[in-house]
Amino acid sequence: MINELVINQVNVRIWEGSSPPAPSSHPLRSQRIHPHRQIEFDMIDTLIPPPWSWDDIEKESLGKPFLKNDSHHIGISHSNGLGCFAWSKKTFGIDIQTPHPSIFKVRQKFCSPNELEYLVDSITDARYLMLWSAKEAIYKFYGHGVDFSQDLSAEHFEASDEKIFIRCRNSNDKYTTFIVHCLKQPNYILSIAYENNL
Questions:
Q1: Rounded to two decimals, what is the model's pTM?
Q2: Other Cβ atoms closer than 10 A to 68
Q3: Residues 6+ apart with CB under 8 A from 61
Q4: Tens of pLDDT along 160-171?
Q5: Res 198: pLDDT
Q6: Handedness of CA 103, 106, 110, 113 (dihedral sign)
């Protein structure tokens, strides 16, 4: 099943099927050796809206996808049987993430000292998943060069919040503030990050 939505001028298509999509006939699929990677490829192939296809997509040297002959920005993400493809005229980063206990276990690696002061030291604090996904979205905004715990620091937020504000320290020690929209569903969270230009 494909779920389509628009969040702050970003168009998103999400594969939420209970079973994998039909195998893609695109020749690039054969380059994915592992069956799990093939299913991810099939999901994104199903989600790419016409007139685009895999033939229109290339990746920068560090892996950020872009359209070869189109001014739209795009984003791709997948997690444990879910996938999303997004596009917009504005620059953004996107992440889809399913809950997993390992996220809590690595909290010291992706949480800043300030965040650890207000987060509850318990796997039941849903904010860890929100924060992980939000920071992943910012990482994908850039495509590289962001240390989750050292460069990204979120303002205090609650699990019920739909937006997170995160300051990002750039390489020249200047700061950019990001707004991250968080769409929370029972089995996943979708995060869309963009620069706060206000």
A1: 0.93
A2: 9
A3: none
A4: 999 999 999 887
A5: 58
A6: positive
